[in-house]
Design brief:
Elements (H helix, E strand, L loop, with lengths): L2 H30 L14 H33 L3 H10 L5 H34 L7 H32 L5 H23 L6 E3 L3 H13 L6 E5 L10 E4 L6 E5 H6 L2 H16 L2 H23 L3 H7 L6 H16 L3 H23 L1 H14 L8 H7 L5 H12 L1
Parallel strand pairs: 2-4
Antiparallel strand pairs: 1-2, 3-4
Helix pairs in contact: 1-2, 1-11, 1-15, 2-4, 3-4, 4-5, 4-12, 5-6, 6-10, 7-9, 9-13, 9-14, 13-14, 13-16, 14-16
């Protein structure tokens, strides 16, 4: 094996070892604190609820270990085991045009990947989530969702891949610059189209009918100059009892979406606090900055891919014969995430800063108490652990741990 092949293999193995070590730390830490609810939450979270969250977290960690190991093996087989070359040979044997062969190659890998991950997805839904009382998905709905995802992959992926391969074939070594513009246009289009056309394929969205709550929300939005397409309730209970809320869309087409399960568990002032937190992301320009960061990272990533495609040592080091531009691009998309995974702690730190700022905004709008009450209820209803391992949380979590987040809200109020 050539030098770069060893470097890639080392990145995959080191990443796997780090993730397994962090998961083991996390699981031990959660179970070590299983028998005592943290003092700050004893009046709101019973010992039984706390233990359920610990057991749920431990069960998810066990499943994650198998998923990580399986994913690493599949990645190594795709790249170093000749999987991509074998798949490319199969598509070429069909005698299609280079464009159709490239599209088929690039889109068949995620489809095959979803099939390989299907046992884990089924186990998570029908065993793990079922055991802890969260699953409400029926097998028919599960299969229908999977088929819809594949249809969307084809409907959206075929024109996108065609456009990228076309510029690769037509524009020479600087293909990555128009490809970046295509990618950014696609992302903006999806951000606009998702709430209106894609999300309704999976869930029903109804305008919020609660008059008092709706008025409270409209007053909050008016105070902050936030224009939206409306406030909607999503039937999240069709699949799970987990609750959530989010903003989606661009410009005046922005929507506010509440899971029906969230509205069932929170009081109106608590719902307002959750919405104020989400609105804080908008007011603090986190969404805009996130788009800018995403654009910059995709620009640098495509520039790196464009440079590496001109370097023979890259493919030679992996033992891959460059057979087509589509195959070259696929190898890049498989290899680079093995190195990008080590940026996770930095991204998690960046996102946690935004969460603190959004919490500060919510506290200024509604006071600390409603936000704290809402957070505690959400942690309790979702069986989210109150005692994550600090190192695991720092490496992975986009949201601060519950005790840290609640303490921050209360200290700011004081």
């Amino acid at each position: 094996m050539h030098a770069f092949g060893l470097v890639f293999l080392a990145a995959v193995v080191i990443g796997l070892v780090v993730e397994l070590w962090l998961l083991a730390r996390h699981r031990r830490h959660v179970l070590a604190h299983r028998d005592q609810t943290p003092a700050a939450f004893r009046d709101q979270v019973s010992l039984e609820e706390h233990q359920k969250a610990a057991d749920y977290t431990a069960a998810k960690a066990r499943l994650a270990r198998w998923e990580l190991g399986w994913g690493s093996v599949v990645l190594i087989l795709w790249v170093l085991g000749g999987g991509v070359a074998w798949l490319n040979t199969g598509w070429q044997a069909l005698g299609l045009s280079p464009m159709l062969t490239g599209i088929g190659l690039l889109l068949s890998v995620p489809v095959i990947g979803s099939l390989l991950d299907l046992p884990f997805a089924a186990y998570r839904t029908f065993v793990l989530e079922q055991r802890f009382g969260f699953n409400r998905t029926r097998p028919g709905r599960f299969v229908l969702d999977l088929l819809l995802q594949w249809l969307l992959l084809l409907a959206l992926g075929i024109p996108l891949v065609w456009a990228v391969l076309w510029v690769m074939m037509q524009t020479g070594p600087y293909w990555w610059l128009p490809a970046w513009l295509i990618w950014m246009g696609f992302m903006l289009l999806m951000t606009w189209a998702y709430p209106a056309f894609i999300a309704p394929l999976f869930n029903q969205f109804k305008p919020l009918e609660d008059g008092a709550l709706k008025q409270r929300i409209q007053d909050l939005l008016a105070r902050n100059g936030f224009a939206s397409k409306g406030v909607f309730v999503m039937d999240g209970s069709r699949r799970s009892s987990h609750g959530n809320a989010y903003f989606t869309g661009l410009g005046k087409a922005k929507r506010i979406v509440f899971f029906d399960t969230l509205l069932e568990s929170l009081q109106p002032l608590e719902v307002e606090a959750v919405l104020a937190h989400e609105l804080g992301h908008f007011k603090k320009k986190h969404i805009r900055n996130g788009l800018i960061l995403s654009a910059a990272m995709s620009f640098l990533g495509l520039a790196l891919i464009g440079w590496l495609m001109l370097e023979p040592w890259f493919y030679l080091g992996l033992g891959v014969v460059s057979a087509s531009q589509a195959m070259d691009l696929l190898i890049m998309l498989l290899v680079l995430p093995a190195f990008a995974q080590f940026l996770s702690p930095l991204m998690a730190w960046y996102q946690r800063r935004h969460e603190f700022e959004a919490d500060d905004f919510a506290r200024a709008e509604t006071g600390a108490a409603p936000m704290v009450e809402a957070l505690v209820k959400l942690y309790r209803e979702n069986a989210a652990t109150l005692t994550p391992d600090p190192l695991y949380s720092a490496y992975h979590d986009s949201h601060p741990p519950a005790p840290v987040r609640v303490a921050h809200l209360q200290e700011g109020a004081a």
